[in-house]
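Readers of this paper often ask what the protein records in our data store actually look like. Such a record has a labelled line for the sequence and another for the backbone structure tokens. Nothing more is needed to write down the fold, since each code stands for a local backbone conformation. The remainder of this section carries one protein's record, kept here as part of the documentation.
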Amino acid sequence: MSESAEPAFDPAAILRVLLDHGVEFIVVGGLAVQAHGHLRTTTDLDIVPAADLLNLSRLSEALAAVAAQLLGGGDAGDPHLLTRAALVSLTTDHGRLDLLNIGLADSLPTSYDQLRGRAVEVDLDGRTVAVAGLDDLIRMKRVVGREVDLSDIGALTRSDEQLRDQAREST
């Protein structure tokens, strides 16, 4: 990966590598919003990996396979890295990847198992990818509260009648 040029964002490629390495994770953030029906652009993949040591070791191997580096530089190969920070932002051969630590991030449910139990499953090339359930996703977005998050909440919570009205207004 070139230092001067950011690689094209290819979330499917990152997801395939994670799946190939047996990493247990849940997609959150912009791609999760898309999976719930609100199409918008995003420039990174946000995931919550299971925090057990075996899974973090698999994650470390997957990160090596995509040449992950800490955003701003530095090695991302330490499997204990995620245990020390609520958010770890990385660059990879396929674009940005953000790792969220469920135990340290206030905006997440109290356990990975809770989040996973409410996740929806989507298909990626015949393989299952867990995506945060709608209620959990809205809760996370509400806590973060950026303009884009509030916009996502509005889009994800519109009623069918509101969507029809919006469609009529845009024609």
Remarks:
- The domain at 11-169 is CATH 3.30.460 (Beta Polymerase; domain 2).
- The chain is about 40% helix and 20% strand.
- The chain has one domain: 11-169.
